[in-house]
What does this fold into?
Amino acid sequence: MHRAFVELLRSNANHASEFESRFDDVQDAQHPDVVTVCCSDSRVLQDHIWVNDEPGRVFTCGNIGNRVVQRTDAGEAVSGDVLYPVEHTGTDTVVVVGHTGCGAVTATYDDLTRGISEPAGIEHCLGLLKPRLEAGVDSLPSDVSRAEAVNRLVEYNVDRQVEFLVESDDIPDDVEVVGVVYDFQDVYSGRRGEVHVINVDGETDVETLRDEHPEIDSRIERLWEY
It folds into this structure.
């Protein structure tokens, strides 16, 4: 057995010892307050970024590029893993979590600007991002570096995912949709590991967001207002 997995099992034993009594109220049902859609990047610790250790509080979804879209025979639809808690557990807040230096956004940018070859499974994922990022790539300033371009497109991607949810008939109007970026590259003005709010229900103007949400005004920040 690979040593890394053995170490994970040892850590899980500690987890089980600590959490054994925390499942009493959620063994038979869940009613999470929030569903988060995070990139599955190993540097994005989905529960830890909220310091969440309460089972049943946050419904977590993860995939490369923090996508909310899936393809069906009938066309594009809200991904089932995002929609499930909204539809079946009463969750009324969706948070789309992008992150600085996103590999999926980088690969999509590279594919749109110079073309790359990926295995079929990865190409399928990029294929869901490419039509949403293409206009963003075309709008980038000509003098930005590749890293700067990617981090602007991280915001652009979060905006497009939020937009898809807000415009979907499957998401009730009373569900709040928030777009954020998790920064561990010193790109934003806060500390490493901070989440920065860039979009609420489709609104992206920083000053408007700060006026509408004064309780979090210090956490509202964007790199790119296109």
